[in-house]
Amino acid sequence: MNSLYTGSDAGPPGSPQARPHRLRLLLPLFLTVVALLGGTAQVSLAGAGSRPNIILVVADTLRADHLGTYGYFRPTTPHLDHLATESVLFENAFTVMPHTLPAHLALFTSRYPREMGVLMNGQTYAGQFPTLAQHLQEAGYNTAAFVSSLAVKGKFGLDRGFDIYVDSTHHKPPGTVALTSFRDWLGSRQEQPFFAWIHLMEPHVPYAPPRDLANRFRSDAGLRAWVQRKGIAPAPTWGATIDKIVVTQRKTPARSTPFLNNLNLYDAETLSVDQVIGELMAALKARDLDQDSLIMILSDHGEGLGQHGYYFHGLYLYEEQLQIPLLIRLPGGRHAGRRIAEPVSLLDILPTVSSLLDLKPGDGLRGRNLLPLMAGKQAGEFNRRPLFAESREYPPRRALSPEHWTSVRRFSVRDGSWKLIRATSGEAELYDLAADQNELADLHEENPAVARRLGRVLDKWLAKIPKGEAAGTDNLTDEDRRRLKSLGYVGGQP
Q1: Which residues contact 452 (CB under 8 A, 6 or more apart)?
Q2: In this structure, how many other beta carbons lie within 10 angstroms of the beta carbon of residue 38?
Q3: Angle at 483 between CA 479 and CA 486, to 5 degrees
Q4: N or C: which end of the chain has fewer CB within 10 A?
Q5: Which are the contacts of 35, defined by CB distance < 8 A and separation ≥ 6?
Q6: Residue 388 forms beta bridges with which residues?
Q7: CB-based contact 402:473 (threshold 8 Å)
Q8: CATH superfamily of 50-385
């Protein structure tokens, strides 16, 4: 791919161009002095002489429990496992909606999707709330996005605040192309702090790992044991819903392809995205940008992979779809290797970056600043905070199967170890996550008092959070629909 820009950001010793580089080299020393003086993670970096570069990597549909550093039994993520030793790792991080566009908008605005009126892919954000990119752009950052999914194309409103927005969705493999675009831009950018968002499509369906990785994993005893622990039925399909979607709509799974092989391909794609992240880190290191940057790696949502009779994401609110990996490498490697057990949200990213840089994003953010938690403070406050989520919306009169009408939406609240899931059709489920992490035993009838209490918490949240309006409810072209269908969305619907 041709370079997006030309020129160099380096300057001779003593030149104005060289001074910011030297100041960034002093950033780790500054952080160490702050720590020795008893400062907390609340300290802003705005006065450090040079603000850190910010790199945000989002791997679409990446389950936390398929990373080695989160305990997976396969070697799927050697680069991420190493990066975790240099970062703060959040063991219990969650999305607010298991659907790509709404989840990204929540990430960038620290607002719930319902506040923006964007509840499915293909809708357009009206811009009610400023995005992280807009805040950083106003603070003097050079902002750039490199995306590889149709769902996050700039025309849906995510391009707000970005100086450039590079779309790699027409290319294969999309994640590698996005990385190449980022490296081209990185080598020719202007000398100013930058914010770069790299969106990696892998491991979203359809699975197409590189040839050298496609057969890396086998349907062995370890995989079968994992399937059994997760309570997944041994058959390759799970009822009419999965049979209809997986077999007739998806390119990857088919009747001749065993279900276990789909898991192998998912893990191969996970290994592929890990390699891309390894190359990204190498590119930063080659330009001496790895140590003084803020690096955040996460996913927008998980994937069903057969749990609870569902392979994909968006329709249900079980842990496998809501939990996401989250690694934050602070400038200078502060708090490296720390693992945080307290539950956190994708909504917390904007408040955290704002606090680090002393930005003023305004009132009404739904997330919280994670810096105190990373410094070992406020754990009780995070443990007491309920976490909410909602399922995606579907276009009217669209159904996945007779028993799972798409007009049904679900809402969930996680409070301590308890989690309530309630559907608009009236059904409710209650789980004790401390004893039942895989949500196999519904305790709704056995614990009606807990269910009622959480129901009141959920009702209060729904009443508090107003529902906004999207700028457009169906901004998909015929070509968009064709490509969505190739990605496995039912009937070309988002």
Answers
A1: none
A2: 6
A3: 145
A4: N
A5: 334
A6: 413
A7: no
A8: Alkaline Phosphatase, subunit A (3.40.720.10)
In contact, 229 and 251? CB cutoff 8 Å: no
Residue 278 has pLDDT above 70, yes or no: yes
Q: Token pair of 16, please?
A: 């104005």
Report the alpha-carbon angle 181-182-187, nearest 5.
Answer: 105
Distances (CA, A) of 397 to 19, 34, 310, 391, 406: 61, 58, 21, 17, 8
pLDDT of residue 312: 83
Residue pLDDT, tens place only, 426-463: 999 999 999 999 999 999 999 999 999 999 999 999 99
User: 3-class SS at 199?
Assistant: strand
From residue 127, give the alpha-carbon distance in Å to each of 97, 144, 180, 345: 19, 18, 30, 22
pLDDT at 188 over 60: yes
Contacts of 304 (CB under 8 A, 6+ apart): 310, 311, 312, 313, 316, 318, 320, 321
Take residue 197 and report the two structure tokens written for it: 């968002």
pLDDT category of residue 412 using cuts at 50, 70 and 90: very high
Domain ranges of the chain: 50-385
